[in-house]
Queue: 3 jobs
Job 1
Amino acid sequence: MRSAAILVSSWATAALAQQVYAPADGPVVRPTKCSVNGSYATATPIYSFTPFSFTQTETMRTATSVIPGPTTTYAPPYESLSHLVPDLATTTWGNWDPNAAAATDSADPYGQAAWSAIWERANLANFTERGMYSTTLVLPPPSYFQPQDSYYFPKDFEFGVAGSASQIEGAIADEGRTPTLMEIITIGRGEGDPKDYITNENYYLYKQDIERLAAMGVKYYSFSIPWARILPFALEGSPVNKQGLDHYEDLIDFAIAKGMEPHVTLIHFDTPLQFYADPYNRTGPTVGRGDGGYSHPEFQDSFVHYGKVVMTHFADRVPVWYTFNEPLLYCENGKAVDAVIKSHARLYHFYHEEIQGAGRVSIKFNDNFGVPQDPAKAEDVEAANHFNEFQLATFANPIFLGQDYPEAFKMTIPDYVPLNETDLAYLNGTADFLGIDPYTATVVSPPSGGIAACAANLSDPLFPYCVNQYTNTTTGWNIGYRSESYVYMTPTYLRTYLNYLWNTWRHPVVITEFGFPVFHEAEAENLSDQLFDQPRSDYYVQFLSETLKAIWEDGVHVAGAFAWSFADNWEFGDYDQHFGIQTVNRTTMERRYKKSFFDLVDFVAARTQK
Ligand SMILES: *[C@@H]1O[C@H](CO)[C@@H](O)[C@H](O)[C@H]1NC(C)=O
Ligand SMILES: *[C@@H]1O[C@H](CO)[C@@H](O)[C@H](O)[C@H]1NC(C)=O
Ligand SMILES: *[C@@H]1O[C@H](CO)[C@@H](O)[C@H](O)[C@H]1NC(C)=O
Ligand SMILES: *[C@@H]1O[C@H](CO)[C@@H](O)[C@H](O)[C@H]1NC(C)=O
Ligand SMILES: *[C@@H]1O[C@H](CO)[C@@H](O)[C@H](O)[C@H]1NC(C)=O
Ligand SMILES: *[C@@H]1O[C@H](CO)[C@@H](O)[C@H](O)[C@H]1NC(C)=O
Ligand SMILES: *[C@@H]1O[C@H](CO)[C@@H](O)[C@H](O)[C@H]1NC(C)=O
Ligand SMILES: *[C@@H]1O[C@H](CO)[C@@H](O)[C@H](O)[C@H]1NC(C)=O
Ligand SMILES: *[C@@H]1O[C@H](CO)[C@@H](O)[C@H](O)[C@H]1NC(C)=O
């Protein structure tokens, strides 16, 4: 296999380089080139007396002055593009109230009664909503500790924050929105059990959220738009929800007015409920862990239509588009993978060829980088390659290289849809950069019965990845610090990973999510203890330091990094995994900055080329 050969050789390069990154026999040499009148390594300190007085002042920082912009446009406005999505009807449906009198317009396929029927089918337990809240801006003191390195982020490096609709918006049944996968996983489909449908009420508090980010100097804001807010009936030919369009119109304009670039993800696990309607049964082995409905016969065309509606409306102001978030996790079978890469490619071609957008289109991948348990053992290296290729090359080979699916995928998911030369030529080069959410690494070795036997056996507990995964190395040490989620959170191997991605798929890499849920933070009794989140600060500073080394020492083009997440949020079942750089009071909705937010923006601001 040509693609496999490329992966193996790039792995060999990375594995070799890795030994240079971290000397095994003592203190790590500091990369610093800072010096005062020669080197601190040889200078003698000059001791002296001065009159003592208490000089401390309580640090009060004011919000960074916000410069509106950018005024750049990336595509013509909707008025000039509307012919690309002909005959869009718009309407409004308002909020769903389970106690309201039944609507009487049952003859209208898109009327109030039809809309309410979708909510009744979702059958949400204990449905409740709350109102609007205000927040107070409270600024903590800055951090004194910063590493003394010398590298800078290039001028065009995009540092921002990310979030996703279902984890922050709430207002799930308001202003015409219909249910999505993220609500129905609460009613017995086996993936979590949210306590309520409120999350962070960002649908109502978005202006406060954006202002609080702007005040911290954040310039890039990555968020997702739920399909079910734009097209409540999901399919092509159904009316567009005027209230939903107006909401994101206002959100985008407000972010720009506050000096931020809005980056949009079209689907972040929130497939509309329609794709779970009968008659629909999933077939074949599960690829990731969930069922995103991507293999539904109507999914591909409907998603492309939805993408066109959103792009034609907002492409003038939105420079970066992600089609799918972490598609592998909700690819239910081989047909789902086919639908993902083909609908992604269709939207890429639409954006660049029909809209003639000057921005960028990409896709966000998940993969907790698999590293061989023993890099000197060929079978461990093969297992690590298998693990990473299954998750990444399955999508990235066709999209970035115009190459077929990897063997790792084809041997595991035999119902995959073969790609012919025409498909591959159409798919080739349909992403402008590679988006990756590298939360942690995992140490990999082959299963005792071999990879092939496992890949052929749906009942094997290691299926579909078919490797052993460890959180420690053969030394017995864990690879990182215990977190509330993902077991270990670590920048360990991040630099190797960035090398792997860049050298394998040969496109700029954007770290589309990175973040750290501090172990047991949710249990901290006092808010003041949650706010002083030093382990998260350390994580961010180490992670970005490794990113700088990849840029300057390895020549890897890392084009941006987006902190996950800008506030604690609903992590698909509960609020215990605090990924946020702000707290959210679940009663009052008040947001507070954690210390790590300051340390993070200060680290980046001090190191960004002017
Ligand atoms: C560095 O050299 C300058 C000029 O000779 C001198 O004024 C300054 O005190 C020196 N700084 C240190 C830390 O030695
Ligand atoms: C609904 O509320 C009841 C009573 O508070 C509780 O026992 C039940 O677990 C809740 N159901 C769900 C799905 O949250
Ligand atoms: C879906 O699958 C279930 C269980 O396998 C079966 O009972 C049902 O008839 C199927 N529905 C359709 C529409 O095929
Ligand atoms: C994919 O496109 C690139 C850039 O145009 C080209 O160099 C490469 O040969 C193509 N790949 C295949 C497999 O045709
Ligand atoms: C390739 O496959 C597509 C379906 O994905 C089909 O429409 C097309 O006709 C095929 N082309 C060739 C040359 O076989
Ligand atoms: C598949 O895996 C299951 C669970 O480990 C095992 O019981 C079964 O024997 C395996 N089947 C084959 C054909 O190896
Ligand atoms: C790695 O961790 C596992 C689980 O805690 C443990 O069983 C194993 O012995 C550890 N490996 C080493 C080399 O210490
Ligand atoms: C929380 O704060 C209160 C009041 O300052 C204090 O009495 C209590 O011990 C604190 N709890 C913890 C776990 O530190
Ligand atoms: C949330 O706010 C309420 C009301 O002000 C307060 O009583 C509660 O202690 C706060 N919760 C946390 C975790 O700070």
Job 2
Amino acid sequence: MLLLLLLQVLASCLWLGRSEVVTSFESSCPQFFFRETPPNEALEPESPAWICQHYQNQYFFATLYDRKRRIPVYSAYVYQPASGKRPKTWMVEPQLIGPTYPKSMEREYTLLKYSKVSLEEISNSQAILQDYKNLTGLNRGHLNPSSHHSNTTSRTATFTLTNIVPQNEKLNGGAWNNYEQQMMITRTKGCNTTYVVVGAVPGNSYIAKGRVNIPSHIWSGVCCEVDTNHRKAWAVIAENDKNEVQVLTLGELENELTQLYGRDQVSLFDSSCPR
Ligand SMILES: *[C@@H]1O[C@H](CO)[C@@H](O)[C@H](O)[C@H]1NC(C)=O
Ligand SMILES: *[C@@H]1O[C@H](CO)[C@@H](O)[C@H](O)[C@H]1NC(C)=O
Ligand SMILES: *[C@@H]1O[C@H](CO)[C@@H](O)[C@H](O)[C@H]1NC(C)=O
């Protein structure tokens, strides 16, 4: 009897220690959101997974993942750019396979080699590398880009496929890259802390035999704290079939997203960010 009880306690400890896919960002990784306030539920898909992105014993950003379309809804992070090399690796999320899998992102190869999991099991729960092979005119677009982070570990953590969408190749290397690099540097002058939420609006077509959705739009909302009493905000949106980025106010982006998602009024940040 005692043994049974002990086993139960042990089992629940293991369970608590390993299962992740959190129930809310507020309870597990609020630090990636301005005033610890994630976007409202107007963006939530039918089968959401809240992921506090974990790598090498640390959380680096947060992603709301759409399990059905196998793309992120958005990734949220604090902007801390630095120059440095672009990591060369791709990872998946064991925690999406099931609650007994570890919470840290992992390379497909390592996961296949060291845990009793098949590629099919991984692919049932999320996009895998194979899905992004042989694309024409599209490539792997980061929502949270590696260049917005300060060191090798934080940069590498952005290379999880749960942070990736099929993005128009020209846009990814052109106008969107310009937003990520020049525009962000210029516009964040004087910002003490800069919070970013980058997302993708689901489209009507798919890659990989219907497995992974091709977004119709990619967007980003930025809220910057200049000091305790001053904030500024702005936003961008791009259609995923044009090499063009439109700059707008945070309020304008939220209204456009409200139309595009077709549900409640979208709110990306706490109300103290100027619209
Ligand atoms: C990708 O294309 C190559 C050559 O065009 C082909 O041999 C291979 O089977 C394709 N792979 C997939 C996953 O479609
Ligand atoms: C990398 O950056 C993260 C986030 O800013 C920080 O917490 C971590 O300590 C840094 N790691 C190293 C090795 O500098
Ligand atoms: C800038 O941010 C840091 C960390 O959040 C904070 O300690 C500091 O007081 C802020 N500075 C200003 C001028 O608001």
Job 3
Amino acid sequence: MIYQRSSALFAAAQKVIPGGVNSPVRAFKAVGGDPIFVKEARGAYLYDEDGNRLIDYINSWGPMILGHAHPSVVDAVIQKTRKGTSFGMPTQIETEIAELAVSMVPNIDKIRFVNSGTEACMSAVRLARGYAGKDKIIKFAGCYHGHSDSFLIQAGSGAVTFGSPNSPGVTKGTAQDTLLARYNDLEQVEQIIESNKNEIACIIIEPVAGNMGCIPPEKEFLQGLRTLCDTHNILLIFDEVMTGFRLAKGGVQELLGVDADIVTFGKVIGGGLPVGAFAAREDIMNHLAPLGPVYQAGTLSGNPLAMAAGLAMLTELNSTPGIFKSLADKTEYLHKGIEKALQHHKVVHTINRIGSMISVHFAKDKVVDFETAAHGNNETFKTFFHGMLNHGIYIAPSAFESWFITDALTYKDLDDTIEAVNKVAATL
Ligand SMILES: *Cc1c(COP(=O)(O)O)cnc(C)c1O
């Protein structure tokens, strides 16, 4: 395939935008080459500036779970746009989407809308600290909760108690309040809690990890965290920015039957517009301004276009019977096909899958945390990525990302993808 125009557009972008991109994951730094510029997208396909058609397995990093330019989402946005795009005053649609979200997700009475997943997680942790009257938080190496300071803590190996910043600009003071643990290692969490008695406000976790490739929690891990939190009076925050409204109507809480105290959302909840949200029981949410002392605000929060897109998306998901099963079935079909192709060509790999999230780790051993994810062979991944791209299949340009399955994918698309894997695997 030819990417002449994309490369020219990238050259122009680099002159006025740092690295030519507005979010680093879009650059091809990990795989080499120039990023592809999108012209438009429909259903399961991207059409780039050079006229190539690509089967899309990123789907805007998750939001487009029903495919691109879904008619009901597009219509909802167009209709709203004609009536004015922002007021900074309450609108009825904010209550409508809040009512629907609260009805779909377990354990939440109230929800507040923000503009991104980053904002949602940042605000959820502030709320947890304000509610609990404690400062420290526990996060897991390899989990991503957006780019606010408390979360940009180095993924250190071993029993790391105090985090250190992995981005310049994050102060030592902030880093000290974030304690790091290994994903799927309950014992380590217990030790951290023991050595920080009565200081920990909350544990924040991706209940199914998606930001070190897809890593589902081991059996009993989440329930173990729940029990620890109850015992030690710590709030449990499920960051469901990726998994919310994707793995089930009620996200991981519903799928795996474990209750969180605060839940954060993003991606799917905005239907492709900039939306995030955080939600909890009433007594926790009532600590937020203007009812309570914990401050949180946003000029464009609850923006009517964003709410219209989100409401249309959640309405589709809520009213389409079997949608999550259909997504999971397609993902399983893809898993089996890829597995067979890689085995046939004797490519060392481990595939992780849950619901409509899947990732191919080019690693020999089971991938259960950041360390084992990092064992994957990045050279193999690079060749795989570019090989798939040459066959018109677009996966994330990094080995540490999940693939997102959309319901717009047909079984023919999946077969084409498996066939591409088969051809690429022969070259690995
Ligand atoms: C994407 C993501 C975020 C950040 O959301 P943004 O909208 O990019 O700020 C936070 N947490 C998780 C689990 C995510 O996948």
